[in-house]
Amino acid sequence: MTRQTAGIHHVTAIVGDPQENVDFYAGVLGLRFVKKTVNFDDPGTYHLYFGNKKGDPGTIITFFPWSGARRGRIGAGQVGVTTYVVPVGTLGFWEERLKAFGVSVMNSSRFGEDYLEFNDPHGLRLELVAREEGPRNEWAFGNIPQEKAIKGFGGAILYSGNPDSTVHLLEQMGLEKVGEENDFSRLRATGDLGNVIDVKQTIPAPGSMGAGTVHHIAWRARDDEEMKDWRSRIQQNGFSPTEIINREYFHSVYFREEGGILFEMATDPPGFTRDEPLEALGEKLMLPPWLESQRDQIERILQPIEVRLLKGDRRS
C-alpha cells in the first residue's frame, strides 16, 4: 500500500462541558478557535475545532463535547497521548503557565527528548515537546506571545491492540521506523508537524469510549485525487474503508486498523476559510447546507460558549 502521508491531519476527541473545553484549549493553551459547528450525525452536539491561526492540517484538534458525559478509559485501540510541539527553549514557560492555571505537570523523556505531560479538564492525555521543525504559529492569545505559541502537533502515542501490525501499517503509509526504546517504536512521517508517532509495544487493557478519550486520528491526503488512491489501496490491503465523506472542511475516509484504532484519511483542502474569512474564523455557528433550515432549533439546543481571557491572564 506504500504511499506517503505527511503525518497527522487532525485528532478528534470526546470531552465534557463545552465551555470548559474552550477555556482550556483557547484560554490556557492559546490555540485559535477556528470553527464552531455541529456533529453532522448528531446536530444537537457541538463539533469544535482548535488550531493555529489558519487552522492548517497538522494543527487541528477537534472535539465532541457532552456536558455530564461518562468518563472513558484510555487503553488499547486508542490514541493514548496527543503530543503538541512548541518552539525550542519554551518548555519552562509552558510549565510555569500550566501550573499557574492549576494543571498538574509531570516531566519525562523519550528518545532523547524532554516532555511535559498533563491532562485536560476531562482527562485527555496531552504532552508538550520542543523542536526546531515546524513553522511558527502566528496566533497569540492572552500572555502567550507568538514566539512561544504552540506550533501544532508533534505527533501521538498510539495504544494498539496489535502493535506489530500497527507499525507495519504506518510503514505502508509512508512513515519510516527510526528507532526503538524501552516500550516504544518510533516512526516519522515526511511533514514537519504531526510527524512523529510512537507506538507502545506493551498492550494495555482495552480502552472504552467516553469523555477524555480520542475518537479517531486522521492522516493527511494531499487532495481528492490522492484520497481516491488512498481508499483503493486501503481496500486492496484487506481493510474496509467507508465511502469518501464530505466533512465540508475536508473529505474523509475512515477505517479501523488491526490494533483497533480508528484511522481517518482527510484531505488538506478545502480548509476552514471556505465559509468564513480568515480574520473571523470561529466567531459564529457554521452549519452545512442541509442543516441550515434547522438553525433556530439547533441554536436553542446548544449551550452558549465563548472564547474568553481567563482570570489572571491579560493580553501582552
TrEMBL record:
- This chain belongs to which protein, by name? Ring-cleaving dioxygenase
Which SUPFAM superfamilies would you find in this protein's record? Glyoxalase/Bleomycin resistance protein/Dihydroxybiphenyl dioxygenase
What molecular function does GO assign, one term? dioxygenase activity
Q: Which residues form the VOC domain?
A: 7-131, 152-268
Report the domain of life of the source organism: Bacteria
> Which InterPro entries would you find in this protein's record?
Extradiol_RC_dioxygenase, Glyas_Bleomycin-R_OHBP_Dase, Glyas_Fos-R_dOase_dom, VOC_core
- A Pfam family in this protein? Glyoxalase
The question of whether S-adenosyl-L-methionine is a record keyword is answered with no
Q: Which UniProt keywords apply?
A: Dioxygenase, Oxidoreductase
